Amino acid sequence: MEEHSQGAEEEMSLGRAARRVARWLLLSTFTIVAGGSDPGAQQSTRILSCDGPFAPDTNEHQLRKAFGDANVTTGSIYLGEGASESGTILFPKSPQDRLEILWSSERYGPRALRVLGDSTRWKTREGLTLGLTLKQVERLNRRPFRLLGFDWDNGGTTMSWSGGPLAAPDKGGCEIRARFGVRNVPPEIESVANQVSGEREFSSGHPVMQGLNPIVRWIFVSYKP
Question: Where are the beta strands (DSSP E) in the chain?
Fold first, then answer.
């Protein structure tokens, strides 16, 4: 009887330990997904999409409620070719979390979301994010796509995903585009790099594009007018 009682106690102790571990794992998972109780807490991934806090009818006040006043500010957003526009910036002090918003009217109804730089925690549901190479984006899209030539302000911007998965409308009906930049020109194609320059469309499958293998430097989410 004593051995049976001791075995039962050990089994109960193990059961309690297992329950403690399970609770710890559940709380840890919730903290990673939800980003903790702080709305500005850094997360490993942030979804770039025109639903949820970025729904077509959102406004700056709602963004402040979602992300916290300290993480939302008004600032000047560069549009290209010397033009800028006042907009809203999320997480202005964190390059990995920064997101720029252009509005259709005064702080109401987003016109576009934008992230830019070398890397970011923001990514689309399809996996498009900053720092991916042209070849990696082709694999996400499952086919070549069309983009503008380089060496001007809008150079490297995608014009068509050619019917690939990246062409599918976002849940909110938005269009997603990327802009590529060339970091280093390989010596073996330096003499022919100008073949993919200028205000013309090229296939990502062009041999020079493949050789340059540029990286995603900007991502735009454009709302329906």
Answer: 46-47, 72-80, 83-90, 99-105, 108-116, 122-123, 146-148, 158-160, 175-181, 201-203, 215-222
Q: What's the rounded Cα separation, in Å, for the pair 106 and 89?
A: 14
Query: CA 75, CA 114: separation in Å to the nearest integer?
Result: 13
Higher-pLDDT residue of 183 and 164 is 164
The domain tally of the chain equals: 2
Beta bridge partners of 82: none
Mean pLDDT, rounded, of the chain: 84
Q: Is residue 114 part of a domain?
A: yes
Under a CB-based contact definition with an 8 Å cutoff, are residues 91 and 106 in contact? no
What pLDDT shows up at residue 43?
58
- Do 3 and 53 have their domain in common? no
Question: Model pTM greater than 0.90?
Answer: no
Q: What's the mean pLDDT in 81-109?
A: 92
Same domain (yes/no): 51, 21: no
Distance CA 38, CA 209 (A): 43
CA atoms of 111 and 145, how far apart (whole Å): 24
The residue among 2 and 95 whose pLDDT is bigger is: 95
